[in-house]
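Re: duplicated header lines in exported structure tokens

Our pipeline writes sequence and tokens for each protein into one text file. With two proteins the header for the second block appears twice in some exports. Here is an export where it did not happen, for reference. First protein block:
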Amino acid sequence: MKRDEHLDMSLSTLIADKIAEEIISGKLHPGDKLIEGKYAEEFKISRAPVREAFFLLINDGLVERIPRRGTVIKGYSKQEMYDLFEIRLLLENMSLSRIGQTIDPEVLIQIESMISRMEDVVSRVKTSDYATLNTEFHKSLIRLSGSEVIVNLYNRLGTPLKTLQKISFIETKGMEQSLHEHKQIFKALKNGEISLAQSILKHHNQHVIDRIEKAL
């Protein structure tokens, strides 16, 4: 690959990341149209890397190309939302079922530290920061499986899942409920009560869906 092609790909990734963050933060909403010229002017580049950025976002399921409308922010149907969270729960249950009755104490320390940081951002009502930590918390549950296949499958849920989760934290009580349930999950794992942790996760997932439905 030529040097300028590497540069274009780097720019495309940068632009895609910026748009993804605008979607997650709520600056961009479902149905909003993305304009190539706007981003080309903002980054002072040609439109080619911008088109590539849009393609990356389409692959991630964040935007879609609609005939006669162009590239727009994708909205998710209730069924698609249910599918995302059902897959997340399935993968997390698979992960927890792999760990037996004991967990590496170092991993528990890392999860406990993450929960402490969550408490801090909830107290300061930092929705974006909480959404990021929330994603890391659930990824830590997936990593407990020790399975690269499960981890890779979970990562493919990517930004669409994070976007929907952030919607569920619009109200402070959404973050507070999430934090409370994370603490319950951690306590169950610490005590080796894997079945209890899985049961809490099931209710946790449903509560996230309930909050999203209320917000949309």
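Second protein block, exported in the same file:
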Amino acid sequence: MKFPDAEKIMDVIRDCAEQVVMPRWRNLSDDQIWRKENNSVVTEADIESEDFLKKRLLDLFPGSTTVGEEETEHDPSILDRLAGDAPVWVIDPVDGTSNFARGKDRFAMLLALCYRGEIIGGWLAAPALEQFIWGMKGEGAFRGSERLSTTGKSGVPSVLSGSLGARIRRIEGMRENFGEIVNHACCGAEYIDIALGNLDFAHYRRVKPWDHCAGDLVVREAGGYTGELMSGEPYRPVTPPADGILISCSEAAFEGVAGILKPAVAAL
């Protein structure tokens, strides 16, 4: 199957950022911000940008379908499309919505193309930081014409910087295992940092396809190593692992970090 040109897809994301997302950043009224049933924040920008992307992408690639974060909130059966035969656009229109709603610049737009349960392409944008990166399976990862590469560091945890969730960060002595621990409350921003070589690893226990498909593909194409924390098996959006996934700058880093996280996560 012939897939759309990756740079044309990035142009669609740029258009959405310019026309829908950025005009609403730091410009939302209280009635344009609310909470979903799961208590997570959503804004008018999330809804309108997902609609914008769905229309443009379906027009660009006839026969494809979508799995959007906001549409799936109202109809969880939409996730079944990931196991079907049609190409699927997996959309997180504004990742890090709490940051976006507070006017912080650490938010992202995430888009992936999946086919028969496999991730084919990924696009990540942090428009407030003017970062736009993408990757296609087997073709590498790019920022414009620049080919991306992770740090490729060794597996010595004490020299690695990474992101961990709150429950793991609070474990006594956990921070001392690593060089630096951060959490930007936006996994898309952290995936971008890993792909650009600014961060070495990240672990996520909450594994929704719209949060992880794009970043998983791009980090792997940039030379990183990703997989299920406990088994090390590749992440597959149709069968998300219970103990989360580990994203890292190299296979050695994956093994070093996993050696510390596995017993900690198992004990939670």
